[in-house]
Design a protein that fits this description.
Elements: E1 10-19, E2 22-31, H1 40-58, E3 66-75, E4 83-86, E5 92-93, E6 105-113, E7 123-126, E8 134-135, E9 139-140, H2 142-160, E10 163-164, E11 167-168, E12 170-180, E13 191-207, E14 212-213
Antiparallel strand pairs: 1-2, 1-3, 2-12, 3-4, 3-5, 6-7, 6-13, 6-14, 8-9, 10-11, 12-13
Helix pairs in contact: 1-2
Length: 223
């Protein structure tokens, strides 16, 4: 595995949860003010803010079998930077009733950044939706798409509103790789690792109309 370079004045917040007993995880990235030193207390405030944003905006589109059990934050500015985590006294459950979807199913938020390029764009795979939210066997209903779009925008606002003292966090996409280094013999060229990752503020969130999957959420096949 490639050792990723430090990301100046950036940090991550990882949401850890269960979906019908199967683990799920979402990783979000944040920028904090240039020239400042972040503390464990700052990261704890970030964990609490991310938990509150998930509870308010994402839990309502997740089935009651989906729970958030922990949020962990890491300073990416230095390999010796602080870390923090918060575990609620009781796992926070989704509030959407209905028949649960397979644990591999995901509702995808595609994040808009002010940078144009070819290739994949930042996105998050949420363990959201119930069977009644599906149309034609492979699409989300128009009503559910509208709700997700509203909630994704509200999530951005909530995440950008997280503060800790004089610290203000900004929700970003963190780019570790640039375009592929391609030679005439390369059919599948590898992306190039940036010496310094680039932070891009996230300005909008749009729900994919398709019911997507996150295959790794199925776990290893039992013998």
């Amino acid at each position: 595995m490639v050792l990723l370079p430090n990301a100046p004045f950036c940090c991550s917040a990882t949401l850890n949860g269960l979906n019908q007993g199967t683990r799920w995880q979402n990783v979000l990235h944040f920028k904090y003010p240039d020239g400042t030193s972040i503390t464990g207390a700052n990261l704890t405030a970030l964990c609490n803010g991310v938990e509150a944003a998930w509870t308010a905006q994402i839990a309502p589109i997740c089935n009651t079998n989906v729970t958030l059990v922990n949020v962990a934050a890491v300073d990416l500015n230095s390999r010796t930077g602080p870390i923090a985590s918060h575990t609620p006294a009781t796992p926070i459950a989704g509030t959407r009733t209905g028949t649960a979807m397979p644990t591999s199913v995901a509702a995808v938020a595609s994040w808009t950044i002010l940078n144009r390029y070819r290739g994949g764009h930042p996105r998050t795979y949420f363990p959201a939706g119930v069977l009644a939210d599906v149309s034609q066997g492979h699409l989300w209903t128009t009503t559910f798409i509208g709700e997700m779009n509203t909630r994704f925008d509200a999530l951005i606002t909530a995440l950008n509103g997280i503060t800790s003292g004089t610290f203000a966090f900004q929700f970003i996409a963190l780019s570790y790789y640039s375009g592929s280094h391609k030679t005439p013999d390369d059919k599948h060229p590898d992306p190039v690792l940036r010496p310094t990752p680039l932070p891009f503020p996230i300005t909008d969130g749009t729900a994919h109309t398709r019911v997507d999957t996150q295959r790794r959420r199925l776990g290893k096949e039992l013998a």
